[in-house]
Amino acid sequence: SVVAQPRAEGGLEQTYVMVKPDGVQRGLVGEIISRFEKKGFRLAGLKMFQCPEDLAKKHYEELQEKPFFPKLVKYITSGPVVCMAWEGPGVVASARKLIGSTNPLQAEPGTIRGDLAVAVGRNVIHGSDSVANGEREIGLWFGEAELCKWQPELTPWLLE
Ligand code: UDP
What we know:
The structure is a single chain. This protein has helices at residues 21-25, 29-39, 53-59, 69-76, 91-99, 112-116, 131-141, 155-158, and strands at residues 14-19, 42-49, 81-87, 125-127. It has 160 residues and is an alpha+beta fold. Strands 2-3-1-4 form a four-stranded antiparallel β-sheet. The chain is globular, with a radius of gyration of 16 Å. The N and C termini lie close together (9 Å). The site of uridine-5'-diphosphate has 9 residues, from loops.
């Protein structure tokens, strides 16, 4: 069959990607969505959202001891973000590659941060760093009813 083989759990790998407030204000939403679409990943969830402080703290709880944590929470809550769930084989690691290094000055040209940002505290985008965190973050940012299970007609042209 040409239909994509889902994971044993019944779905493809998923990652949580978010255009941060600077990316929204700078009009980079379309460009960023475009890069994931063109790569061949499947959009399963998408919304614009003003993040409350408690959610920002929960999302970044692993970093709460870091000196930049208060600034990070302020940054993420400083304006609306665009929340996305992307699906596809190896999407967690691949999204991290498309995004580039945390510090945009160290990010390779061709990556989102490498092409579109200069400061670590204004690095325009988030992507989950593991499959487990992808699931955790999608659960934090999306309700079940906001996630769309669909099979694009294009799938057999993208996945064997
Ligand atoms: N960050 C920061 N200063 C630092 C390191 C990180 O402001 O020295 C911010 C930055 O926005 C980064 C986020 O904290 O994207 C989360 O840090 P992490 O190390 O998890 O990087 P990421 O996974 O986003 O590349």
